[in-house]
Design goal:
898 residues; seven-stranded mixed β-sheet; binds iron/sulfur cluster; 5 domains; binds molybdenum atom; binds FE2/S2 (inorganic) cluster; Rossmann fold; globular; Alpha-Beta Plaits; six-stranded mixed β-barrel; binds ligand MGD; Ubiquitin-like (UB roll)
């Protein structure tokens, strides 16, 4: 602590504080037009001047020293600051000080008694309104550079620059030309930091990054990806006017991405479902809630009568809240009497849950992201966080730019790979060999922690015996990664003091995804870099959906109860039965692919699908459609009439994340609150209300009248959540689990004393490398990898309904220039892609981000048919689809009339 005097008042400040911090601590409001707490200081605008030690200094760049005496309030220094602000304002045109809401500059003028008529400049430089979310009024730019630093120092996109000289200096996209054609990924950071309103978002509430909750704004948690950004929703006339990242957001700290920040246009889309639909004479027709719920209840009863409880199943939603997921599984288990409930974790990180449980005892990541973001070596494997978890991606990138070693393992040149010390490009589906190659070098170079392995791990002898077969030279033959790169990567990870592993679907969505997770987990175990040893930050899956962690935590899984008690474990069942006062079936239920198989065989008679567009996003989609067609009752809770809803017998209109209350659990196991900002459209209801209505129609009462009560009840079933409550999250903003008591903080770092395995030891895996399910051959010579693009989200049902569609209007098939020549397709040309399972139509995009022999596309435009290509090969342990390796061929599409 440093003690100094500001205007005669003593203030204590932490090391590294500046005189601007000191002034604020003393309650003095100084203008600071080129300063933002999140950015390096520039010290260029001179509006924050103070006096100390007989000198006039810029407070924002002057370190606070012990015993300093600082004067902010004297008439002379106030006049200097006033003149600096007035000079800046005087060069701007009159509209600069006439905006509503007022800009930071306008506030600074008002606070120092400068009247708006000071702004007498002329508007000569014009606007750039080409981008849907970010508009530029060049005449209001004061060249403070905050936007440029935001784009480089926080977001890491480096899209902006200052051009021109002297008074003519102005912000511009680095690529030259219009904003719309620039590298901008619309994170909104420049909008939030601009002090003059030169950069704004179109619409009624321009807004600046919000400080702690402001009245009239609703604090909630983003409903897109698993990062869990805290957002403040500005509501005007009962509509969302803006969504601003919260500066006190536990994970995002004032940052967000194009989806959470701007992609709320779907809310008011004319295509939103606003009333229940029931199929009559083959057509979906509007119905009242009572009618629709009645049809569903009758259908469920009929299914149970004819096929027993096991002929009913539900797919619960990782987009929905914890409380909704809790109710859904409780409904299936206690009202219907079956464990047939699953969620989309099956399609993404089920291998993480299985693999991490086998290795360490629990299903989530081992460490908090706050720690991971301080690691000195980052091993990022099969994940593309720059596009899929942008706020995490930005923080990882900044860490690498600050000097941490970065190893990226991805077949494609993803965003982080450009900044990597080593980029490993394994052939898709060869991870296990690659991870063994890395482990081989760790052992060979004696970069392992023998004490940790002796005291806290098991399986070393089997693993070292296996690793003898995986020298880098042989691994090169399997993976295509040069042996020298494997060695370099292993040495970076092996010699780091605090390494961390972060990974994504490139590890899990494979035939041997669980083996991939387990053999990747070998690396931190070998190094003793897990379990709170202080020698590294374990391994963290970048879980995908906003609440996929929570949906699984709440027991929306066929073999696991809330809190991961096994349905086959009488003790776990007894605990749930005591709370629910109903028997819980002991037989594990069906997994999602098994549900479809059972429907095609006639064993499944009713399927309730909540917020998952299975016909668009599950693999081998023609077979999924056959399953739905064969199932006598298909009920869908949805926002839109997507591929799946169109095939349903009953469609129930649901509220989305901005329209309901509850909690989500983000990727690093933190519970955060979700709060309704606006009402759902028409007669749409929350999934919470829908489950209750259905249960009532079946003659049962699920209890838990409110989301708050549901979470409290869940804590009684699952001791690991016993200390979590709405009231506590309201107070603390985020509560990590395990959290067994209201008196204990949640555990963000796991296993500090022992692992949660039966013997308390971390378990090394000696699984051998086995080839992927799909391999190219003469007929299908290319390997297709599918994944994500930054502007769209999964089925695209929400992001395609709004201006994100302008940012990314269609899906593309990325292919290497050599393959473009070989198959005779040029950039921008329509192509037909065939696999052994189906066909898709896409636009070719030629570039070297993909390796020769491989192609890549997303699945955000279901009408393209990408998931008719993917196969029903799935992880041998968890049934997670092999989305990341499909053998395909391609040809130019024959255009009509040519
Ligand atoms: N913009 C956007 N963000 C999203 C989503 C979205 O749809 N759009 N979806 C959310 C969801 S549900 C999820 S689960 C997450 C997913 O987030 P990620 O896991 O980051 O997403 P993907 O792009 O599917 O796959 C990651 C990477 O795996 C690589 N890969 C493929 N095969 C292999 C392999 O064999 N080995 C290795 N090492 N790498 C391989 C791919 O090239 C790809 O770059 O994103 C979430 N965030
Ligand atoms: N080829 C290929 N396919 C993939 C993947 C891949 O990498 N490659 N990734 C897979 C992965 S990881 C995942 S997670 C899945 C995701 O697949 P899905 O879960 O099907 O995709 P989403 O678009 O996230 O959302 C599903 C639906 O929920 C609706 N919805 C949103 N919020 C709510 C709500 O609160 N309540 C209700 N009732 N409905 C709501 C949306 O309108 C949308 O139609 O896709 C998988 N499919
Ligand atoms: S989509 Fe993910 S990174 Fe983007 S604002 Fe939402 S939680 Fe944050
Ligand atoms: S805020 Fe200190 S010089 Fe600009
Ligand atoms: Mo996912």
């Amino acid at each position: 602590m440093t003690r100094l005097q500001v205007d005669g008042l003593a203030v204590d400040l932490p090391a590294g504080a500046t005189l601007l911090d000191a002034a604020r601590a003393a309650g003095a409001e100084l203008p600071s037009l080129c300063h933002d707490d999140r950015l390096r200081s520039a010290g260029s605008c001179r509006t924050c001047l103070v006096r100390t030690g007989g000198r006039t200094v810029a407070a924002c760049v002057t370190p606070a020293g012990p015993g300093m005496e600082v004067d902010t309030a004297g008439a002379e220094i106030r006049n200097l600051r006033r003149d600096a602000v007035a000079l800046i304002a005087s060069e701007l045109p009159p509209h600069a000080l006439a905006q509503d809401p007022p800009s930071e500059l306008a506030e600074a003028c008002r606070a120092s008694g400068i009247t708006p008529d000071v702004a007498t400049g002329t508007a000569t430089r014009g606007r750039d309104d080409t981008h849907p979310y970010v508009h530029l009024d060049r005449d209001l730019c004061i060249a403070c550079g905050r936007c440029v630093r935001m784009c480089s120092d926080v977001q890491g996109t480096f899209a902006l620059t200052l051009t021109g000289r002297g008074a003519e200096t102005v912000v511009a996209p680095g690529t030259g030309g219009a904003w719309a054609g620039s590298d901008c990924v619309a994170c909104g950071g420049c909008v939030d930091t601009c002090p003059t309103g030169a950069i704004t978002q179109p619409g009624p509430a321009r807004g600046h990054t919000s400080r702690p909750p402001v009245p009239g704004r609703v604090r909630t948690t983003c409903g897109y990806c698993g990062v869990g950004c805290a957002l403040d929703v500005v509501v005007r006339d009962e509509r969302v006017a803006a969504v601003l990242p919260a500066r006190d957001g536990p994970v995002n700290r004032g940052h967000a991405c194009v989806k959470g920040r701007f992609s709320y246009g779907y809310l008011s889309s004319a295509e939103r479902l606003t009333e229940p639909l029931v199929r009559r004479d083959g057509a979906l027709t509007p119905a009242s809630w009572d009618e629709a719920i009645g049809v569903v209840a009758d259908g469920l009863r009929a299914a149970v009568e004819r096929g027993g409880a096991r002929s009913v199943a539900a797919i619960s939603s990782a987009r929905a809240t914890n409380e909704e997921n809790y109710l859904v599984q409780k409904f299936l288990r206690t009202v219907i009497g079956t464990n047939n409930v699953d969620n989309c974790s099956r399609l993404c990180h089920a291998p993480s849950a299985a693999g991490l449980t086998a290795a360490f005892g629990r299903a989530g990541g081992t460490d908090s992201f706050d720690d991971v973001a301080t690691a000195d070596c980052l091993l990022v494997v099969g994940a593309n966080p720059v596009e899929a978890h942008p706020v995490v991606g930005a923080r990882l990138l900044q860490r690498a730019l600050d000097g941490a070693a970065l190893v990226v393992a991805d077949p494609r040149a993803v965003g982080l790979a450009r900044h990597a010390d080593v980029h490993l490009r394994p052939r898709p589906g060869t991870n296990v060999a690659l991870f063994h190659g890395l482990a081989h070098v760790l052992v060979e170079e004696d970069l392992i922690d023998s004490v940790f392995l002796h005291d806290r791990a098991a399986g070393l002898a089997e693993l070292t015996a296996l690793l003898a077969d995986y020298p880098p030279g042989r691994v090169e033959g399997i993976t295509g990664v040069p042996a020298e790169d494997i060695r370099r990567a292993a040495l970076l990870y092996g010699r780091a003091e605090r390494p961390a592993v972060v990974y994504g679907l490139g590890v899990t969505e494979h035939l041997h995804g669980t083996d991939g997770v387990r053999t990747l987990a070998n690396l931190p175990i070998l190094r003793g870099a897990v379990g709170g040893t202080g020698r590294g930050f374990g391994i963290s899956p970048l879980r995908g959906q906003n609440n996929v962690q929570g949906a699984s935590d709440m027991g929306a899984l066929p073999d696991l109860l809330p809190g991961y008690g096994r349905v086959t474990d009488p003790g776990a069942r007894a605990r749930a039965e005591a709370v629910w006062d109903r028997p819980v079936p002991a037989a594990p239920g069906l997994r999602i692919p098994e549900m479809f198989e059972a429907a095609r065989d006639g064993r499944l008679r009713a399927l309730w699908i909540i917020g998952e567009d299975v016909c668009a996003t599950d693999p081998d989609s023609r077979r999924v459609a056959q399953a739905l067609d064969a199932c006598p009752l298909v009920v869908v809770d949805e926002l839109f009439l997507g591929e799946t809803a169109r095939r349903a017998d009953v469609v129930l209109p649901a509220a989305s994340w901005l329209e309901k209350d509850g909690t989500f659990v983000n990727f690093d196991r933190r519970f955060q609150r979700v709060r309704a900002a606006v009402a759902p459209p028409g007669a749409a209801r929350s999934d919470f209300e829908i489950v209750h209505a259905l249960s009532a129609a079946m003659g049962s009462d699920l209890g838990c009248r409110t989301p708050e009560e549901a979470l409290a009840e869940c804590g009684r079933v699952a001791p690991v959540f016993a200390g979590v409550s709405h009231a506590r999250i309201d107070r603390e903003k985020a509560v990590p689990w395990p959290c067994p008591s209201p008196d204990l903080p949640g555990e963000s770092t796991l296993y500090t004393e022992r692992f949660a395995t039966p013997d308390g030891r971390a378990r090394l895996s000696a699984a051998p490398y086995l080839p992927p399910g799909e391999e190219p051959d003469a007929d299908y010579p290319l390997l297709l990898v599918t994944g994500r693009r930054w502007a769209h989200y999964n089925s695209g049902s929400m992001t395609r309904r709004g201006a994100n569609l302008v940012l990314d209007p269609q899906d593309r098939l990325d292919l290497h220039p050599e393959d473009a020549v070989r198959y005779g397709v040029g950039d921008g040309v329509p192509v037909v892609v065939d696999s052994r399972h189906g066909q898709a139509r896409l636009i070719a995009h030629v570039g070297s981000d993909v390796a020769p022999g491989q192609v890549f596309c997303a699945f955000h435009f279901p009408s393209d048919g990408v998931n008719s290509l993917t196969s029903d090969h799935a992880d041998t342990v968890t049934s997670c689809p092999e989305y990341k390796a499909t053998a395909v061929r391609l040809r130019p599409a024959v255009l009509p009339g040519s």
